[in-house]
Specification:
By secondary structure, this protein is mainly β. 8% of the residues lie in helices and 40% in strands. The chain is built from 2 helices and 26 strands. Strand 5 and strand 6 form a beta hairpin. The longest helix has 18 residues. It starts with a strand and ends with a strand.
Protein backbone atom coordinates (compact mmCIF):
# COMPACT_ATOMS: atom_id res chain seq x y z
CA UNK A 1 0.00 0.00 0.00
CA UNK A 2 1.28 3.47 -0.82
CA UNK A 3 2.19 5.59 2.19
CA UNK A 4 1.54 9.34 2.22
CA UNK A 5 3.73 11.85 4.01
CA UNK A 6 3.11 15.54 4.48
CA UNK A 7 5.32 18.61 4.41
CA UNK A 8 7.83 18.66 7.25
CA UNK A 9 7.55 14.94 7.95
CA UNK A 10 10.28 12.38 7.47
CA UNK A 11 9.62 9.70 4.92
CA UNK A 12 10.64 6.39 6.44
CA UNK A 13 11.87 3.86 3.92
CA UNK A 14 12.70 0.44 5.33
CA UNK A 15 12.85 2.03 8.78
CA UNK A 16 15.85 4.19 7.86
CA UNK A 17 15.45 7.72 9.26
CA UNK A 18 17.25 10.50 7.43
CA UNK A 19 18.23 13.93 8.75
CA UNK A 20 15.20 16.18 8.80
CA UNK A 21 16.24 19.00 6.45
CA UNK A 22 19.00 20.80 4.61
CA UNK A 23 19.29 23.89 6.79
CA UNK A 24 20.94 27.19 6.01
CA UNK A 25 22.71 27.16 9.36
CA UNK A 26 26.12 25.57 8.93
CA UNK A 27 25.85 26.32 5.20
CA UNK A 28 29.62 26.28 4.58
CA UNK A 29 29.94 22.72 5.87
CA UNK A 30 26.82 21.67 3.95
CA UNK A 31 28.10 23.17 0.70
CA UNK A 32 31.37 21.26 0.95
CA UNK A 33 29.68 17.92 1.64
CA UNK A 34 27.04 18.49 -1.03
CA UNK A 35 29.66 19.44 -3.63
CA UNK A 36 31.48 16.19 -2.88
CA UNK A 37 28.22 14.31 -3.35
CA UNK A 38 27.67 15.99 -6.71
CA UNK A 39 31.16 14.96 -7.83
CA UNK A 40 30.31 11.38 -6.88
CA UNK A 41 27.08 11.54 -8.87
CA UNK A 42 28.84 12.74 -12.01
CA UNK A 43 31.60 10.13 -11.73
CA UNK A 44 29.53 7.10 -10.74
CA UNK A 45 26.86 7.90 -13.30
CA UNK A 46 29.46 7.69 -16.05
CA UNK A 47 30.19 3.99 -15.62
CA UNK A 48 28.68 1.74 -18.28
CA UNK A 49 27.18 -1.64 -17.59
CA UNK A 50 28.55 -4.86 -19.05
CA UNK A 51 26.23 -5.63 -21.99
CA UNK A 52 25.99 -9.26 -20.90
CA UNK A 53 24.66 -8.09 -17.54
CA UNK A 54 22.07 -5.92 -19.26
CA UNK A 55 21.00 -8.76 -21.50
CA UNK A 56 20.51 -11.15 -18.60
CA UNK A 57 18.45 -8.73 -16.50
CA UNK A 58 14.84 -9.69 -15.87
CA UNK A 59 12.27 -8.04 -18.15
CA UNK A 60 9.83 -7.63 -15.25
CA UNK A 61 10.11 -6.79 -11.58
CA UNK A 62 7.66 -7.92 -8.88
CA UNK A 63 4.94 -5.56 -7.74
CA UNK A 64 6.29 -2.77 -5.58
CA UNK A 65 9.94 -3.53 -6.35
CA UNK A 66 12.32 -1.33 -8.33
CA UNK A 67 13.48 -3.00 -11.57
CA UNK A 68 17.11 -1.90 -11.12
CA UNK A 69 19.42 -0.66 -8.39
CA UNK A 70 20.23 2.55 -10.23
CA UNK A 71 17.81 4.62 -12.28
CA UNK A 72 19.14 7.17 -14.76
CA UNK A 73 15.86 8.77 -15.75
CA UNK A 74 12.21 8.93 -14.78
CA UNK A 75 9.29 10.38 -16.70
CA UNK A 76 5.59 10.46 -17.45
CA UNK A 77 4.30 9.55 -20.90
CA UNK A 78 1.69 12.21 -21.75
CA UNK A 79 -0.06 9.64 -23.94
CA UNK A 80 -1.59 8.00 -20.87
CA UNK A 81 0.15 9.22 -17.76
CA UNK A 82 2.28 6.08 -17.50
CA UNK A 83 5.35 6.15 -15.26
CA UNK A 84 8.64 5.41 -17.05
CA UNK A 85 12.01 4.34 -15.63
CA UNK A 86 15.21 4.52 -17.72
CA UNK A 87 17.75 2.00 -16.44
CA UNK A 88 20.99 0.21 -17.34
CA UNK A 89 18.73 -2.59 -18.58
CA UNK A 90 16.36 -0.59 -20.78
CA UNK A 91 13.12 1.35 -20.40
CA UNK A 92 10.52 0.09 -17.92
CA UNK A 93 6.84 0.97 -17.59
CA UNK A 94 5.43 0.93 -14.07
CA UNK A 95 1.87 -0.38 -14.10
CA UNK A 96 -0.93 0.61 -11.76
CA UNK A 97 -0.40 -2.74 -10.05
CA UNK A 98 3.20 -1.76 -9.22
CA UNK A 99 4.71 -4.25 -11.67
CA UNK A 100 7.57 -2.85 -13.77
CA UNK A 101 7.86 -4.26 -17.30
CA UNK A 102 10.60 -3.58 -19.79
CA UNK A 103 9.46 -2.32 -23.16
CA UNK A 104 11.75 -2.36 -26.15
CA UNK A 105 15.37 -3.50 -26.37
CA UNK A 106 17.91 -3.76 -23.54
CA UNK A 107 19.69 -0.46 -24.09
CA UNK A 108 21.74 1.01 -21.26
CA UNK A 109 19.90 4.33 -21.05
CA UNK A 110 22.30 6.84 -19.52
CA UNK A 111 20.26 9.86 -20.62
CA UNK A 112 16.50 10.03 -21.12
CA UNK A 113 13.90 12.71 -21.89
CA UNK A 114 10.21 12.74 -22.77
CA UNK A 115 9.60 14.88 -25.86
CA UNK A 116 5.84 14.27 -26.20
CA UNK A 117 3.14 11.57 -26.15
CA UNK A 118 4.93 8.29 -26.88
CA UNK A 119 7.92 10.33 -28.05
CA UNK A 120 11.21 9.89 -26.18
CA UNK A 121 14.88 10.81 -26.64
CA UNK A 122 17.73 8.87 -25.07
CA UNK A 123 21.43 8.07 -25.13
CA UNK A 124 23.71 5.36 -23.78
CA UNK A 125 25.04 1.96 -24.83
CA UNK A 126 23.49 -0.90 -26.86
CA UNK A 127 22.93 -4.30 -25.30
CA UNK A 128 23.76 -7.56 -27.11
CA UNK A 129 21.76 -8.00 -30.28
CA UNK A 130 20.77 -4.33 -30.41
CA UNK A 131 21.66 -2.93 -33.82
CA UNK A 132 22.98 0.44 -32.69
CA UNK A 133 26.53 1.88 -32.56
CA UNK A 134 28.59 2.12 -29.38
CA UNK A 135 27.77 4.61 -27.91
CA UNK A 136 24.33 5.07 -29.40
CA UNK A 137 24.50 8.89 -29.63
CA UNK A 138 21.08 10.50 -29.62
CA UNK A 139 18.29 8.02 -30.33
CA UNK A 140 14.54 8.52 -30.68
CA UNK A 141 11.40 6.48 -30.07
CA UNK A 142 8.01 7.53 -31.42
CA UNK A 143 6.15 4.39 -30.32
CA UNK A 144 6.42 4.63 -26.56
CA UNK A 145 9.88 3.07 -26.29
CA UNK A 146 9.19 -0.15 -28.19
CA UNK A 147 11.67 0.71 -30.94
CA UNK A 148 14.51 3.23 -31.21
CA UNK A 149 16.01 4.98 -34.23
CA UNK A 150 19.35 6.82 -34.42
CA UNK A 151 19.15 10.59 -34.82
CA UNK A 152 22.74 11.84 -34.58
CA UNK A 153 26.22 11.49 -33.05
CA UNK A 154 26.19 7.70 -33.27
CA UNK A 155 29.55 6.30 -32.15
CA UNK A 156 30.44 9.72 -30.71
CA UNK A 157 28.27 10.78 -27.78
CA UNK A 158 27.06 9.15 -24.60
CA UNK A 159 24.84 11.89 -23.20
CA UNK A 160 24.41 11.57 -19.43
CA UNK A 161 22.45 14.81 -19.04
CA UNK A 162 19.68 15.43 -21.57
CA UNK A 163 16.74 17.82 -21.81
CA UNK A 164 14.29 18.69 -24.58
CA UNK A 165 11.84 21.52 -25.22
CA UNK A 166 9.94 23.11 -28.10
CA UNK A 167 13.11 25.02 -28.99
CA UNK A 168 15.44 22.02 -29.20
CA UNK A 169 17.72 19.68 -27.27
CA UNK A 170 20.50 20.36 -24.75
CA UNK A 171 22.84 17.51 -23.82
CA UNK A 172 26.14 16.80 -22.05
CA UNK A 173 28.70 14.11 -22.89
CA UNK A 174 31.77 15.71 -21.31
CA UNK A 175 31.03 18.76 -23.43
CA UNK A 176 27.79 20.72 -23.64
CA UNK A 177 25.89 20.56 -26.93
CA UNK A 178 22.74 22.26 -28.19
CA UNK A 179 20.60 21.44 -31.21
CA UNK A 180 17.38 22.86 -32.65
CA UNK A 181 16.44 19.56 -34.31
CA UNK A 182 18.50 16.78 -32.67
CA UNK A 183 20.52 16.37 -35.86
CA UNK A 184 22.82 19.39 -36.21
CA UNK A 185 24.75 20.35 -33.09
CA UNK A 186 26.59 23.38 -31.71
CA UNK A 187 29.11 23.00 -28.88
CA UNK A 188 28.71 25.59 -26.12
CA UNK A 189 30.57 26.29 -22.88
CA UNK A 190 29.39 25.81 -19.30
CA UNK A 191 31.38 26.80 -16.18
CA UNK A 192 30.96 23.42 -14.45
CA UNK A 193 29.90 19.92 -15.49
CA UNK A 194 26.11 19.48 -15.14
CA UNK A 195 24.70 16.50 -13.27
CA UNK A 196 21.25 17.28 -14.72
CA UNK A 197 19.79 19.75 -17.21
CA UNK A 198 16.29 21.21 -17.39
CA UNK A 199 14.67 23.23 -20.17
CA UNK A 200 11.74 25.65 -20.17
CA UNK A 201 8.97 24.26 -22.39
CA UNK A 202 8.69 27.08 -24.91
CA UNK A 203 11.71 29.40 -24.75
CA UNK A 204 15.49 29.33 -24.40
CA UNK A 205 15.77 29.22 -20.60
CA UNK A 206 17.80 26.39 -19.05
CA UNK A 207 18.85 25.21 -15.60
CA UNK A 208 21.84 23.03 -14.68
CA UNK A 209 22.81 21.40 -11.38
CA UNK A 210 26.58 21.60 -10.86
CA UNK A 211 29.28 21.56 -8.18
CA UNK A 212 29.26 25.37 -8.35
CA UNK A 213 25.55 25.46 -7.60
CA UNK A 214 22.46 25.92 -9.74
CA UNK A 215 23.26 27.65 -13.04
CA UNK A 216 20.84 29.36 -15.42
CA UNK A 217 20.90 30.32 -19.08
CA UNK A 218 18.49 32.61 -20.92
CA UNK A 219 19.95 31.99 -24.39
CA UNK A 220 19.82 28.25 -24.87
CA UNK A 221 23.16 27.52 -23.21
CA UNK A 222 25.38 30.11 -24.88
CA UNK A 223 25.94 31.86 -21.55
CA UNK A 224 25.44 30.86 -17.92
CA UNK A 225 25.16 32.57 -14.54
CA UNK A 226 24.51 31.41 -10.96
CA UNK A 227 20.96 31.44 -9.59
CA UNK A 228 21.47 33.66 -6.56
CA UNK A 229 19.95 32.24 -3.39
CA UNK A 230 19.10 28.85 -4.92
CA UNK A 231 19.67 25.67 -2.89
CA UNK A 232 22.53 23.43 -3.99
CA UNK A 233 20.57 20.79 -5.93
CA UNK A 234 21.58 17.38 -7.20
CA UNK A 235 18.72 16.97 -9.70
CA UNK A 236 16.35 19.48 -11.31
CA UNK A 237 13.46 19.32 -13.77
CA UNK A 238 11.17 21.81 -15.49
CA UNK A 239 7.51 21.00 -16.14
CA UNK A 240 6.38 21.00 -19.78
CA UNK A 241 3.60 23.34 -18.58
CA UNK A 242 4.57 26.83 -17.48
CA UNK A 243 7.25 27.78 -14.96
CA UNK A 244 6.87 24.97 -12.41
CA UNK A 245 10.32 23.63 -11.49
CA UNK A 246 11.41 21.12 -8.86
CA UNK A 247 14.77 19.98 -7.53
CA UNK A 248 16.14 17.69 -4.86
CA UNK A 249 19.33 18.33 -2.92
CA UNK A 250 21.79 15.53 -2.07
CA UNK A 251 20.30 15.10 1.42
CA UNK A 252 16.91 14.26 -0.12
CA UNK A 253 15.06 17.54 0.52
CA UNK A 254 12.62 18.57 -2.20
CA UNK A 255 12.58 22.18 -3.39
CA UNK A 256 9.98 23.73 -5.70
CA UNK A 257 9.81 26.93 -7.72
CA UNK A 258 6.83 28.60 -9.38
CA UNK A 259 8.90 31.14 -11.34
CA UNK A 260 11.33 29.10 -13.40
CA UNK A 261 13.90 28.66 -10.64
CA UNK A 262 14.23 32.30 -9.60
CA UNK A 263 12.94 31.64 -6.07
CA UNK A 264 12.57 28.37 -4.16
CA UNK A 265 10.36 26.87 -1.46
CA UNK A 266 11.59 24.06 0.77
CA UNK A 267 9.48 20.90 0.87
CA UNK A 268 9.62 17.53 2.64
CA UNK A 269 12.65 15.33 3.12
CA UNK A 270 12.29 12.26 0.90
CA UNK A 271 14.48 10.14 3.11
CA UNK A 272 17.51 9.44 0.87
CA UNK A 273 19.60 10.90 -1.93
CA UNK A 274 17.97 11.39 -5.36
CA UNK A 275 18.81 9.60 -8.59
CA UNK A 276 16.26 11.07 -11.01
CA UNK A 277 13.36 13.53 -11.08
CA UNK A 278 10.37 14.40 -13.29
CA UNK A 279 7.84 17.22 -13.06
CA UNK A 280 4.61 17.48 -15.07
CA UNK A 281 1.55 19.66 -14.73
CA UNK A 282 1.75 23.02 -13.01
CA UNK A 283 0.84 24.95 -9.90
CA UNK A 284 -0.62 23.22 -6.85
CA UNK A 285 -1.54 20.15 -8.92
CA UNK A 286 1.94 19.54 -10.37
CA UNK A 287 2.87 15.86 -10.50
CA UNK A 288 6.37 15.07 -9.23
CA UNK A 289 8.19 11.75 -9.48
CA UNK A 290 11.46 11.24 -7.63
CA UNK A 291 13.70 8.18 -7.70
CA UNK A 292 15.91 7.99 -4.62
CA UNK A 293 18.43 5.38 -3.56
CA UNK A 294 15.61 3.71 -1.64
CA UNK A 295 12.38 4.18 -3.57
CA UNK A 296 10.26 5.72 -6.33
CA UNK A 297 7.97 8.28 -4.73
CA UNK A 298 5.20 10.34 -6.31
CA UNK A 299 3.34 13.53 -5.47
CA UNK A 300 0.12 14.76 -7.07
CA UNK A 301 0.11 18.10 -5.20
CA UNK A 302 3.38 19.82 -6.15
CA UNK A 303 5.39 18.05 -3.48
CA UNK A 304 3.23 18.70 -0.43
CA UNK A 305 2.68 14.96 0.09
CA UNK A 306 4.22 11.84 -1.44
CA UNK A 307 3.25 8.21 -1.95
CA UNK A 308 5.82 5.42 -2.11
CA UNK A 309 5.30 3.60 -5.43
CA UNK A 310 8.28 1.19 -5.54
CA UNK A 311 11.10 0.25 -3.18
CA UNK A 312 14.51 -1.34 -3.60
Amino acid sequence: MARRHGVGELILVRDIRVNARFRRSGMDRAVVSVAVALVAVVLTGCGSTDPDTAASAASTAPAGVMPASHIHGVGIDPAGGTRLLATHDGLFVVGEDGVSTRIGPAIDLMGFAVAGPGHFLASGHPGPGVDLPQPVGLIESTDGGRTWDPLSRQGESDFHALAVSDTGVIAYDGSLWRSHDGAEWEQVAIPSAPATLAAAPDDMRLLATTQQGLLQSADGGRSWSPVVGAPLLQVVDWSPHGDSVAGVDPTGVLWTSADGGATWQEGPNLGSAPQALDVSGSGAAARILVVTTEALVESQDNGRTFDIVLEH
